Amino acid sequence: MYIIAVCDDDEKELERIENFLLEYQRTKSRCEYKTEQFKSAETLLARIREDGYTPDLLLLDIFMQGKTGIEAAQELRDENCNSLIIFLTTSREYALEAYGVDAIQYLVKPLEQEQFFHAMDLASRQIDRRRESQIVVKVAGGGIRQIHSDDIIYCESQKNYQILYMANEEYRVRMTVKELWSILEHIPQFSRCGRSYILNMDHIVSVEKEEILMKNERMIYIPRTVAAEFKKSYFSYYFNSRSERVR
Predict the structure, then answer these.
(1) In the predicted model, is pLDDT for residue 75 greater than 90?
(2) What are the tens digits of pLDDT across the range 167-220?
(3) How far apart are CA 60 and CA 41, in angstroms?
(4) Does the pLDDT value for residue 142 go beyond 80?
(5) How far apart are CA 42 and CA 48, in angstroms?
(6) Contact criterion met (CB below 8 Å) for 161 and 140
(7) What is the DSSP letter of 139?
(8) Which residue in 44, 97, 191, 245 has the fewest CB atoms around it within 10 Å?
(9) What is the maximum alpha-carbon separation in the chain?
(10) Torsion of CA 41, 46, 52, 57, to 10 degrees
């Protein structure tokens, strides 16, 4: 079941998108979804912030009364919302801003069914991959946690423990780095960095010489002996993932 939020201040566009979704579901027999409609960015933001609403996908108009879709998306990204975003708009002028908030597609109105279906295929694949990449760990002090791998910024080895750093919290897990890597190595965005770190490459801000800046503002210092190989791995992943988003 996919949870989809549709935000547009034009009633006719909301109806058109809903019809496209119904037809998409009809052609994809295994696709099930639940939609909720919003007529302004403010009502969408309030629903997410106050009710803990967590859609898998946001279908966002850009030009609306009040906040634009770009502004709403930026606020959500600043609050660590990782819902997938597809922008729907009448103009191409905000394409760079759209990819700046990690939108997976930018569709120009009037929407065409083939174009919309292609975007939904891309979103569906990414949602499925996200769900497959959830991991379950036993944290120090007791308790089992189910963690979405996308939420892990990086992992640091401290003797017999691994520290999993998220945006607003961290988990201390009793296992070796080899054991943790055996869990994460099949997930494309993770890469070993020396003996002590496993980095989520989606959370890297910059790579400079032997320094890596992460989105939580932590600087990771890497040995010169592994810097070149890591940079090669990172830039290969970065450009491949960007290419997939624009296809």
Answers:
(1) yes
(2) 878 999 999 999 999 999 988 899 998 889 999 999 999 998 889 999 999 999
(3) 8
(4) no
(5) 10
(6) yes
(7) B
(8) 245
(9) 59
(10) -10
Structure tokens at 90: 């009448």
Greater confidence (245 vs 116) lies with 116
Q: How many CB atoms lie within 10 A of CB 176?
A: 13
Beta-bridge partner residues of 207: 212
Pairing relationship of beta strands 144-148 and 154-158 according to DSSP bridges = unpaired
Residues 104, 198: Cα–Cα separation, whole Å = 25
Separation in Å, CA 174 to CA 106, 121, 179, 240: 43, 39, 10, 34
Question: Nearest-CA neighbor of 217 among 205, 229, 202, 231?
Answer: 205
> From CA 201, how far away is CA 168, in angstroms rounded?
18
In b/e form, how buried is each residue of 35-58, taking b as 16+ CB within 10 angstroms?
A: bebbbbbeebbebbeeeeeebbbb
Q: In which residue are the tokens 């967590």 written? A: 54
DSSP 57: E
Residues 6+ apart with CB under 8 A from 38: 5, 6, 7, 44, 47
Token look-up 């403010």 returns 42
Residue-wise pLDDT for 86-109, tens only, equals: 999 888 887 788 888 989 999 999
